[in-house]
Every structure is written in structure tokens, then in C-alpha cells.
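Q: Here's a chain of 245 amino acids. Please give me its 3D structure as C-alpha cells.
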Amino acid sequence: MREAYASMWTDAQCDAWGRRTKGPEVAKQANDWLQLADKALRAEGAEDIPWSRQRLAWVASLTVQLENELAGKLDDESSAARHARDEHLAAAKHLRAKTLSRMSLLVGGNGERGAALAVANKDSCNADEVASTLGALANLLHLWRMEARLRLLADELGLDETVVRGLRESKSQLAEAELNAASLRPSRGDGPALNRVEGRLLRELRALQLAFGMARDQGLNAPKLPVRAALKSIFSSRQSTEVEE
């Protein structure tokens, strides 16, 4: 029977609806309705409602499939984002250590330069702090290179303007990677595979909604299925389940 249920809508039709919504909201809606529908289909006289318990089990299986897709998507994306952030952080720490060791050779007996380098090299462990340190070192090195004699010494140590640019680029890359890792949320968007199962579940939920509406019109004891605000564009009317895409 599952092949028969799945044949009700094409992959293209499911994809079209899946692109209109967000997976977490669809999963919540499905779980809300599954509880109500299951109770209704167990009640006396439920055999007249135009929806079978077998088809409700199909809807439940689609819901589980969507939840699994969502869990996998979030785990994979979060892991990839954290891995990218950690790689940028490791590279930034290496660049910071290399730059600091060479800049310390420019301090000599100048107390002001030593103090300035100490401030730029404040304790930093996490990505935001390391990025801030890279920016401070870039600014300080650029400032030191404005002095002719110090610039000659810096060039001898390989601390030229390419190092300044490299520090600033590393800072930007690390800050972006940290932001991506920290702000990743389910609402960032659904992929093609998730969209398809999401859309197929939406089609089935729409058909379930219509079936229960028909049952109520006939005086049967079928509950009204409440629609979540985020999905009103899908479930707001009682017209055909088809959509032109």
C-alpha cells in the first residue's frame, strides 16, 4: 500500500511544496495531527471517516523519515561548520605565534614597543579572542613599519605588508567561520532530499485535513485539525490538494 500512497503525487509536486516550508514546522504539525487523527480513528463509528488507520501509519512513517532527515542535516551541517571553524582557529593560532616571535625581536630596549606588543598579545583562547588578537597585531605591525629604521628591521625578519594583510585576512576568515558555527539554525534552509520527504508529508497532511473536513460535513465525529501559523498558506483553504507549480 505504501507504493500506492506514494504514487498519489509526483516527486516534482512534493519538491514544490517542500520548498515552501521549513522542515521543523512540518514535523510539529504532523505530530499534532497524528495524535488527533489516531484518537478519532479509534473511536466508535470511525469506519465511516474516509481515512484508514493504514494510511495514517503511512503518514506517521513519513513524519519519522522527515525527523530523521532533519536530525542528519543538522548534525552534518553543524559538524562541518565546527570543523571549518577549528581549522581556521588552528591556522590563526599558528600565524599568531609565528608573528609574535618575530615582532618580539623588534622590541629591543624600547619599553613602549614592549608594552604595545603585550597589549596586542592579550590572553586569547577562543575564536573571537584570537581573531581580535590578529587584528591588533596587524595594526601594530603596520604602525611599526611606518618608522623607516624599524621597517628595515621588520623586512629583514620577513614582517612586510604581506604579513599585515595575511593577519587581517586570517582574522576575517576566522570571524566568519565562528559566526557560521555559532549561528547555524534549522531555519537556514532545506536540501533537496529533505524537501522531497517534507513535501510528500505535506501532501498527505493536506489530504488528511480534507478527509476529516468531509467527514465533519457528513456529521461524523472527526476533529478539526488546527493549523500552525507558519503553514497557513498550505492548509488555509478547503480546495483541491493540487497546486500548480
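Q: Can you summarize the key feature?
A: The chain has two domains: 2-77+188-235, 93-187.
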